[in-house]
Amino acid sequence: MSSGTELITDALMQLGVVSAASTESPEALAIGLRVLNSMTQLWLSRDIRVGLTPIAAAGDEVGEFSDARNAVVANLALEMAPYFDNGKNVASEDLRQNAHRLLLHVKGLHRQLTSPNLTLSATTPMGAGNFQTFHRPV
Question: Alpha-carbon distance 128 to 124, whole Å?
């Protein structure tokens, strides 16, 4: 699991807004928190279950599944890009394709499984471990 700050920082690094040596501004964290919660609500409404939960502060634990982290970061970067473009396109085509590919992969891994409507017999046939009496043979 990651904190919201870690996810937001990684997304900003993918956009090239911050580097490993610099820190993100409080304004960037506030934007990232707002976008992360918005994306979380959107995914939950579309039944995309990757363990995300909305958070109150950027430092709170998000609770994403470990195999979904890259998809969350890439899609968060894509959603945050318009806030940091300054007239130029900061979201590359590679980032767009990668975010889409990762999301499809995670959706496939964590889709809700349903069982078909089957009617099963309440008894098993003789010879399959079914005893007609309550005592065991000696």
Answer: 6
